[in-house]
Predict the structure.
Amino acid sequence: MDLEVERILKRFSEAMKDGGISKMAPLVKAERRRVECVTVHVAVTGTPRVGKSVFINSVMDFKDGTADAAPTDPTQQVAKPASYRRPGDPCCMFWELPNIEGVSFSPDGYLKALEVDRYVGFFILSSSRFTWEAVALANELRRIGKQVYFVRTNIDLDTHGYKNKEFAEDALRAVTADCFDHLDIEYAITHYFCVSCHDTERFDFMACIQALQNSSPPLQKHALLLSLYYLANKIELKNSLKELIPVSAIYSCIIDPVPVERLPYQANISFLHKEICFYRTVLGLDYQALNKSARLIGQPTFVLSDEIQTRLARELTEKAVSEELLRWTEKNVLVSPRNTKWLPLLETLPGRQISGASTIRLLDAMLEQFMDDAYRIQRKIAEILRGD
Ligand SMILES: Nc1nc2c(ncn2[C@@H]2O[C@H](COP(=O)(O)OP(=O)(O)O)[C@@H](O)[C@H]2O)c(=O)[nH]1
Ligand SMILES: [Mg+2]
C-alpha cells in the first residue's frame, strides 16, 4: 500500500534541515491529521426490501431498532440518501440510497440526483436475480469508473449451490437479455457476493467488505481498514498500520515528550499508550471483543483471554508501556530493514537514533505479537467449534 511514506520522509527531512524540530513538529502533527481525517463514503442501493438497511446495520455493528441504526420498517423507505456512521468514527460513512425501480427509472437521472463523485464504491443489493435497473445502474457506474459490488442477500434462506459460478451467472442474468449483453460478466462474477445481512461471520459478508477495502485508493483503504477493522483482513490491517509506525515513533520523540525513569531520551508515553491501545482494539484483543467472541461460542471470556501471551495485551497501562520501551532501548536494537530509509532522519532526533529506532521496534513488536495472539484466539475458537 502506498500511504506516500517516501514523500512524508522527504518533507520531514527537509523541514528538519531547514529549521530543526520546531519546523518539523507541525508537519508531524499535520501528517497524522491527514491520515486520520479521511472520510470514505460508500453507497448501498437496490430494489425495495432487499436488505439495504440491515446490511448497513451489520457493517456498522448496529443492533436493529437502536437509535443509530437504519430503520427496517417496511414503511420507512428512503426518499433521499441517508447516511450512517459509527459514533465517534469520522472515517467511514455508509449511505442508503433511494430504491432503484420503476419503468421510468434511468441510471443517469438517478445518479444526477446524488453526489456520485463522493462515493468510493457502490453495493448493489438484490435478494434474488438482479433486475434490469440494477444492471443498467451498474453499467453506468462502471462507465464513470466506480467500483460496483453485486450483493445477493437472503442467502441464508437458500444456500444450495451458492458457491457455483452458474448460481452467480443466474443471479446476474437480468430479466432483459439486452442488459445482460452489456454487463461485463467477468467483472460482475468477480464482484459478486452472497451474504446474509444478519450474519457477518457467514458466507461472503466479510469478503465483500474486504473487496471494497482492497480496491479503494491507499488513503481510503487505510481509513476503511481502521474504521471497519472487525471485518478486515488482519494481515492487511497490520501492514497498513506498519507503514505509519515511523511517523508515530517520531511523534512520540518530539511532540510533548516527558522524561521516563532510566530512559536515555524523552518520550510521549501517553501517546504511545493510546497507539498501542488502538492496535489492541483493531486486532480484537480488548475485553469487549473477546467477550463478544466468547459469547458467540458459548464460553466464558477467560477461555479466549487465556490464549493471550503478550504482556501489553493483558495489562495495558502507561507504566507497562514505559517499561516495554525501556526494554527495547536497552536491547539497543536496529530498526527493521523496511525502515532503514528513516535512519538519517532518526539520527537528527533529540535522543539520536536510539530514541526513534527503539520506538519503532516497540510499535513493530506490539503489532506482531498482538497478531500472534489474535491467531491463537482464532485457532482456539476453531477448536471449540470443532468440539476438540
Ligand atoms: N433471512 C434474511 N432476511 C433478510 C436479509 N436481508 C434483509 N432481510 C430482511 O428483509 C427485510 C427488509 O430488510 P431492509 O433492510 O429493511 O430492506 P431495505 O428496504 O432494502 O432497506 C427485513 O425484514 C430484514 O430482516 C438476509 O440476508 N436474510
Ligand atoms: Mg431500508
User: Anything to note?
Assistant: The mean pLDDT is 92. Residues 5-36+244-386 form one domain. Residues 52-53, 70, 96 surround magnesium ion (ligand 2) (CB under 6 Å). Residues 352-386 form the longest helix (35 residues).
